[in-house]
Description:
The protein is α+β, with helices and mostly antiparallel strands. The chain has a domain at 10-120: Aminopeptidase, CATH 3.40.630. It contains four helices and ten strands. The chain has helices at residues 19-30, 40-49, 100-114, 126-130; strands at 10-13, 55-61, 64-73, 75-76, 83-91, 119-123, 135-136, 140-141, 150-154, 162-165.
Amino acid sequence: MNDKPEINVTIRPESSDDVGAISRITELAFRTNPHSNNTEQFIIEELRRCGALDLSLVAEVDKQVVGHIAFSTVEISDGSLHWYALGPIAVTPELHGRGIGQALVNAGLAALRDLNAAGCVLVGSPKFYGRFGFRNCPELTMDGVPQMYIQSLNFGAHSATGKVKHHAAFSVGS
């Protein structure tokens, strides 16, 4: 059970003034993650540089950026269109467990639905992302990713199947 109270957070699209804070927060958030090669901030920068950062939201507390979530288009080998990848997502480490990540995911998924996205995929904890409706999808694969961490969420009746290919920016530093 989480004993940290939620805080008042504002979610909004990133602005050019947020780029430095996004990079710092992302680097800090993944610094001690055993499943990270600590390139997430560079992935975001490359997605942005290539015009492939389709949706980028920040979380603010007291007008200070404390979190970020990125979405980019993915290709799926069955030809499914309008599918997005969620990630990276990062929250200032000292504010973990305060509802900021949840607010970012909820706002991001709502924005994807407004874009008429067909669905969203991610690599992450089934326990955390299950609360948003994500489920493990054995019909989806990603090179080098254990099946149990591949999660998907359909926004309509169509389920994508096949190999998921992220933007080339996800290869930065690997």
